[in-house]
Amino acid sequence: MTTTARSADHAALPAADHAALPAADHAALLAAAVAGDGEAFRHLTDPFRRELAVHCYRMLGGLDDAEDAVQETMIKAWRGLAGFAGRSSLRAWLYRIATNVCLDTLDHRARRVLPAAIADPAEPAAPPAPDDHDTPWLQPYPDTLLDHADPDSDPATVAVRREHVELAFVAAIQHLPARQRAILLLRDVLGYSAAETANLLDSSPAAVHSALQRARAAIDAGLPAAARHRPTGDVADLVDRYVRAWHAADIPALVALLRDDAQMAMPPTPSWYAGRDAIAVYLRQLFSSPFGRHLRLRPTAANRQPALAVYAPAATGSELVPFAVKVFTVRGDRISAITGFVTPHLFPAFGLPDRLGGSFGAPVTFAGSDPSTG
């Protein structure tokens, strides 16, 4: 994360609640909510749900976790509303609750990771390792939800927000101690001052400053090179060429779209592949099977990055069913990383259909599921 990015993010922040109401209306709604009016409470808090979900996602690394954390935040806010009394902005008060909900969650479970954090590169000619469902894996975040949370279309604002939700950044901050993670996000992403952050976390400005310096140093050292470079070509065309090559099972064309040092991961298998040549070997293995040849792709977007929804043949019949979301990191004019999240339960959050009509001829039945997405 650069100093320029931090400054731009601070400049983009509103001075007050973006959903602020006239003082009289806000006071009336607050009084009604304190008195037990659930509709008034929802009117006050609903404008913040989307941005709170993004904050919780950054803290916890999972869409499922973020949704649970926001739900718990709203329950705590409803129960504690009488103690709010308007001493701070409603937005700051909700962020205080949400951040502490996330910290409590992190006290009881391991951080979410990507395969490269826990395993060496796999041998591409060998089958991928069995799925590891005991490891908490990072999850993608749908752009459809980010669009609601970040309605500002100013290019500078969007660019910085994109930096702070891309997979590389979210993966990197999961390695910070939980309170350092919270302080980094509150200060450098949300723009709260040291004093405000200290108040939100029941800390001191000096402690916040010290933790922030350590967190910044760790992130600056830990972000991969690919996270520091932006695409330079037509990303939509790049993804379109990938889809066409995939559906044609044209492995040379697919490999030509990758950087020499490209990486590919497919959680929940811990196997990941380093380098274009290794990925090419894996793809040849994948497309040699009926399962691989019948996978179909549909464009989507996640973490402000291009992505593809992967549909696989159903166990019976000719329809295709949700299988994975492949998120692309693009550096220059080529793909530097592909992360295929085998999380079919997340398809509704992306607004994706739960089935696609089969277009590959006779139904194909498989004894088991392939653990890879390619």
What features would you describe in this structure?
The chain is an alpha+beta fold and 374 residues long. It has helices at 3-12, 23-34, 38-60, 63-80, 90-106, 143-149, 155-163, 167-173, 178-189, 194-200, 205-222, 235-247, 251-256, 276-287, 290-294; strands at residues 258-265, 272-274, 296-302, 305-313, 320-331, 334-341. It folds into 2 domains: 3-228, no CATH class; 235-350, Nuclear Transport Factor 2, Chain: A (Roll), CATH 3.10.450.50. α3 (38-60) packs across α6 (143-149) and α10 packs across α11 (205-222). The longest helix has 23 residues, at 38-60. It is globular, with a radius of gyration of 22 Å. It starts with a helix and ends in a 33-residue tail after the last strand.
Q: Which features would summarize this protein structure in a list?
A:
374 residues, alpha+beta, Nuclear Transport Factor 2, Chain: A, 2 domains, 6-stranded mixed β-sheet, 47% helix, 13% strand, globular, disordered N terminus
